[in-house]
Amino acid sequence: MYRIPFSKTYLDFELPANMRGTYSASRPVEPLADVEKAIDKALADPINSPPLRELAKQGDTVCIVFTDITRNTPEHLLVPAILAELNAAGVRDEDITLLCGTGLHRPSTPQEKVIKLGQSIVDRYRVLDHEPFNLAGLEDLGITESGIPLSVNKVAYQADLLIATGIVEPHQYAGYSGGPKTVAIGAAGEPMIAHTHGPQMVDHPGTRLGKIEGNIFHQAVTEAARRAGLDFILNVVQDDHKRPVAIFAGRPEDTFEEIVKAAKGLYEVPVQQEYDVVVAGVGFPKDMNLYQASRAASQLFFAPASVVKDGSVFIIPAPTPEGAGQGEGERRFLETMRSGNDMPSLLAELRRTGYPPGAQRAFVMAKVLEKNHVIIVGTVTPEVVRQLHMIPAADMDEAFRIAVSKIGRDDLEVLIVQRALLTLLVGRTG
User: Fold this and answer.
1) Domains, the chain, ordered by start
2) Model's pTM, two decimal places?
3) How many CB atoms lie under 10 A from the CB of residue 216?
């Protein structure tokens, strides 16, 4: 019997008789015994930076950029600790803005703001959503040497002190999320997001999962955060059960470097061979829509170690009640995928014409679907799954029957990845 996440619970299943399973999960790391104490310690002794209560002073304006509901960052623990430091420095409540770094995702709902921050903070402070299409609300940060147009939310740029929270985990383009990305992408304008997620960037061999060195995407977001004036970050690494295992605070670039080391020790897992079928667990909130849930397939497809053969099948259990997703980027993902009759021609067209931000998910998934099949199990929006050139299945039994029919035999090697978005498969030796 195997168990993987499904929404806020779990899905238990068995493999058909002739299939052989291998189970893969992040390495066991002892979670922090006292998270609030660990946060206080990180803030009291930050990396290459004075503590916040020394950085801030009375009369300063402060902007704290936090992640949206698609990220499992425990802002309900991080943000109150930051606010306590600012309060100790004499910063007034009315001089503090909490900015939700939505990127091109939909605006956060009032309920999501409360989930992220807590009711008392939402009631006490100014809480805003970033608006990537509002040109009047963006600060032009110039163009990098490589031609990337940089921009950031004006509230963030104009603050005397700019702080960001974040969660550090494997990321398809940035190598690892968190660090500068919360501000550089979460609070960026559409042109920057479009360029950094465009075909030239995504096709670049340095823009890869788990890769920081030589990663031009990471270089771009680091430069954007630097020009935006990001002063301080408080980032966390979590295990498969969303329990913090490491918390670091301090100067953005130095802090990110240290926390990535901790993340690699948790997320990087050796794999020994290629498989016919990969079952990829996702879980809430990523399995709310197909834009996010489909990342399980692309993350495993582009893993440092090759885990699938051409013609293999990815099985992703995900309810996807929001369909493709409700933000502008998610809508573009759906429209772009729906426009393609087949994946090779869609890829050729996107490389020729480019695409708007959000549609990079279509470009990446077209690469996956050009060589493999993707089955979404338990979806309540099967028609949207079909429009995205994926296959809906009612349950795991049906998914395995489809896999057998696609591959043409039933003696399949199956890899079960408990949390695909939190597992970086490396070091194939077989």
Assistant:
1) 2-25+271-426 (3.90.226.30), 35-267 (3.40.50.11440)
2) 0.78
3) 17
